[in-house]
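Suppose a colleague, Dr. K., hands you the sequence of a protein chain of 241 amino acids and asks what its three-dimensional shape might be. Before reaching for any lab equipment, you can write down a predicted structure in token form. Begin with the sequence itself:
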Amino acid sequence: MLASISSLNINAQHSASQKSISQLKKDTTTSIWKQAIAPVTLISFGILANNSSFEKEFQINLRNRVGNDFQLGIDDFLPFVPTAQMYLADLVGIEARNHWFDQSKYAFASTVLSMSMTYSIKYLVQKTRPDGENFAFPSGHTTFAFSNATVLLKEFQSTSPILAYSGYLSAVSTGTLRVTNNKHWISDVLIGAGIGILATELIYHFEPLKSWNPFLKKKNMTLLPQLDASSYGFYYACRIL
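The predicted structure, expressed as tokens, is then:
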């Protein structure tokens, strides 16, 4: 009788365990699709707008409003703002999802993946920019900006939501200026934004090289990114016992 009860308990525990694993896999798959909604929507709208009469008329009307000589070069620097925000937040002690080395690792991986996708499409499509130059589609600046903004979101969404979402301000500004500066069509920035977000979501889902962090166990060693108005680099300190 006792053996039968024990057998029933073991079978019940096994079934519960199998159910929880199955539920976890289901939740993970659901999460992937949920996170993909925004970037896929952006990419879809970009494809619909690409080479359409709407985007050509939009570009002409926009340039007429701001002036055909309008140029504001800060779109070359805005994509780096979310990364600077992330490291500054680390320096002042705001709690993040990951250690700074893992942040850097995932940011680098996201950039490699997103920019590889963007530049592959650029050279395949070879769409002409509004100013007559080549390789418009998609926007590399916008891809990079939204990739960095999504890294910032992933790292601080739970602990500092305002900081986490603030990266998209510079990312949206980057895309807006690429169009306003006559460097890109609206479809270029929509697809660039979608690729940047999607690539980063994939990196944070799969977490490549998750266990690789040579600095995590080195309590006597400190290595932090350092930024100021005239230079950038790293701060290193090692305490010898």
